[in-house]
Amino acid sequence: MIKILLVGCGGILGAVTRYAVNVYISNRIYSLFPWATFSINMVGSFLLGLFLIIFHEDNFILFIGTGFLGSFTTLSTFSYEGIQLLKKEKIKLFIAYVLGSFMMGIIFAYAGIITGKFIIESFK
Amino acid sequence: MNKYIAIGIGGFIGAILRYLIEISTPCFYCSTMFVNSVGSFGLAFMTALFLNLSSIPNWLKISITVGFFGSFTTFSTFSLEALELLENGNILFFFFYSGINLLLGLLFAAIALYIVNRLRKDKKGNLI
User: Fold this and answer.
1) A22, B42, B51, B79 - which has most CB atoms within 10 Å?
2) CA-CA distance, A65 to B107, in Å (whole number)?
3) What is the torsional sign of CA B67, A94, A110, B31?
4) Mapping DSSP to helix (H, G, I), strand (E, B) and coil, where does residue B85 land?
5) Nearest-Cα residue of chain B relative to residue A50
């Protein structure tokens, strides 16, 4: 039960933060490319890699990992925005968005892991 | 209702549902593929359905779309699991897994939009 609440509370924060960041970026960058969702997904992938290396406590991982970062990032919004680009016949932007999110997401996750390992080594 | 509270509630439910699905499936990767596909369909469907539907309050719309479906799916978990598959040399499953998450997500979103579009046409402008 505690586990469910931890995930849920992380989820509240993740969703609200995602919305706030989305509004913030959307109000400042005017582009057909979905920079808001893209940045959110990249930062989230990086942070998840980072946290999974540094922290091993189950409850913390449930709250920050599954809860917060799992909700902060979103693939449904990515899918919707991707299709919108297709509908607007922005094929190059569509390919850039899909391939970019895919490849950069993995790269950011890897960077997060490397950074985490570096931080752990620094504290030894 | 306050926007943020509405989104928070949706996020609460979405995250928990995603977690429950994760712990009830024997393989982690399966649950991610499932929530991301279903969630992509759901978000697109509800977003399109809610378009120009003034009878539903704004807070409820974003609670379901941004809150629930936004949190039900996850990109960070996908990135990490894809990376894990790559590092383990599981190239075939890496492409299959990535394809299901990304391509199926896009496909389901497109299908959802198509369905809502057809529903609108049938009802001659008035949705139920």
Assistant:
1) B79
2) 27
3) positive
4) helix
5) B80
CB A81 within 8 A of CB A96: no
Is the alpha carbon torsion for B62, B63, B64, B66 positive or negative? positive
pLDDT value of position B127: 53
ipTM of this predicted complex?
Answer: 0.95
B42 contacts A83? CB cut-off 8 A: no
Kindly report, residue by residue over B90-101, the tens digit of the pLDDT: 899 999 999 999
The pTM assigned to this predicted structure is 0.93
> A11: which 2 tokens?
């989820």
Long-range residue pairs from B113-122, CB within 8 A, at least 24 positions apart, any chain? B113/A83, B113/A87, B113/B44, B113/B45, B113/B48, B115/B45, B116/B45, B116/B48, B116/B49, B117/B48
Nearest to A66 by CA among A105, A2, A8, A1: A8
Q: Is A117 helix (H, G, I), strand (E, B) or coil?
A: helix
Contact B40 A11 (CB under 8 A): no
CB A38 within 8 A of CB A100: yes
CB < 8 Å to B36, chain A: 75-76
Higher pLDDT, B127 or A18: A18
Residue A90 falls in which region: left (phi positive, over 0), alpha (psi -120 to 50) or beta: beta
The shortest CB-CB distance from B109 to any of A67, A83, A109 is to A83
